[in-house]
Amino acid sequence: MRSIEENISPQVSNGTDNKDWKRDPSPPQPAVDEEEDSPFAPGGLEVDIDINSPDLGNVLEVDGDVQDSAASVYAMSSYPRMQPEYQVEQPFENGIDGATIDSSRTLYAEDVDYITVHGRTYVGDYFIPIDATEQTRQYVQHQVFLKLFDLELTTVPLDNPSYILDIGTGIGEWAIGMAEKYPECEVFGTDIAPIQPTQQVPFNIEFHIENAEDEWIRPANAVDLVHFRNMAGAFADWSFIYQQAFECLRPGGWIEIIDYDDLYTSQDFVSFYPPESRAHLFFKAFGEAMVASGRKGPGLPSHMDEKMLIDTGFVDLKPSLYDLGIGTRENASFGKLWLFSLLTGFEAVAMRLLTRYLGWEEEYVRELCNEVAQETREIAEDPTRPDGFVVKLRVLVGRKPTVPGQWTAKALNEDGSVEGIGDYTGSGSGTGSGDESTIGSMSRETVRSEDTV
């Protein structure tokens, strides 16, 4: 049995052809002068969770080796600490008018609306914290995705991309991996919090502090891929978000949305808890608080409604469905990592919502979250339970038409369907998709099927 630190050893991806750049697996900590008025301790957010602690090791201990040659995999302890002053120094200028990117979008840590409540640190109204505990959880989630997708960072068939945009980049690992894989591509990661590394990263990546609910400052018809992952509940108006993404994508450019199904109403998940379990109270209350916050409609993930993307103008939609097995019994590869993410996630996603919108007391929420986490772990490790203790993960991809106005909302039936509209049979003529891309050549039935793995 090997620890997570031994299995996920610091290494530079072999996928990049740029031999002049290498990320030091153990970069030195930058010297930072202490400032009493800083919202955080010197160097940024203090690490309050130790990835090498015995308690965490009990969850993260895994079998076998992690072979990663396609994306960056680093222990959280190898990241350089954030400097108080965060800035992006150069706008994107690779074949696109650099003036279209506002180079004055340089912000500093003190300009970010940090809020510390209930022992967690948040930004603005966003309900998920951004402190080091949450950063560790995001790091572990990234490892789960890498293993789920066989070390591939995207399901989209990119061909020599020049501009990739990651919305809600978080700790930035996905964006860094894409910058390593495509060294000639400009990669931008945006977020409302500066929690990404700013040293020892690929030369072709920039992190911007931006709120995606504001007007985007990206050039039109330029981006090859706009990527969203784990963004359920992040935005009040997803139609606006998708419209902004559509405008900045080049003709034929891709959008990819990855998010969990509604585990709080999914029978694949909820049915494993006994009827008397207080987990059902937690799941119901969380759903009500999400609706009350105005960040989601009934049912999750409502932002992955295909009709919403079709109404925006996207074509060649392809939904896929995956099983994220909880615990090693369900998945020997990443089950224990995913279990850790769930156990630490209950309080992370629920504390601010339940206290703010339902008026629950902090200690009651914390006690309930701990109880649900303990019960979840017991179910995952129960050798007598039935199989199928999983969370569903949905992936939805689509493209901006290569021909303006092709198969847009104006061409749909009143119910939003595409029945009888054009010839989308994959004959290779390009009718219906605008070209002969891999996904576009599929039949409509194939494109809209859900491939469970």
TrEMBL record:
Composition bias of kind Polar residues appears in 1-16
Q: Bias regions of kind Gly residues — which residues? A: 423-433
Q: Which UniProt keywords apply?
A: Methyltransferase, Transferase
Q: Where is this region: Disordered?
A: 1-46, 418-453
InterPro entries registered for this protein in UniProt? SAM-dependent_MTases_sf (IPR029063)
Query: CDD domains recorded for this chain?
Result: AdoMet_MTases
Any Gene Ontology biological process: methylation
Q: Does the keyword Transferase apply?
A: yes
Q: Which SUPFAM superfamilies match?
A: S-adenosyl-L-methionine-dependent methyltransferases
Example GO molecular function term?
methyltransferase activity
Superkingdom of this entry's organism?
Eukaryota
Family designation? Belongs to the methyltransferase superfamily. LaeA methyltransferase family.
Protein name stated in the entry? S-adenosyl-L-methionine-dependent methyltransferase
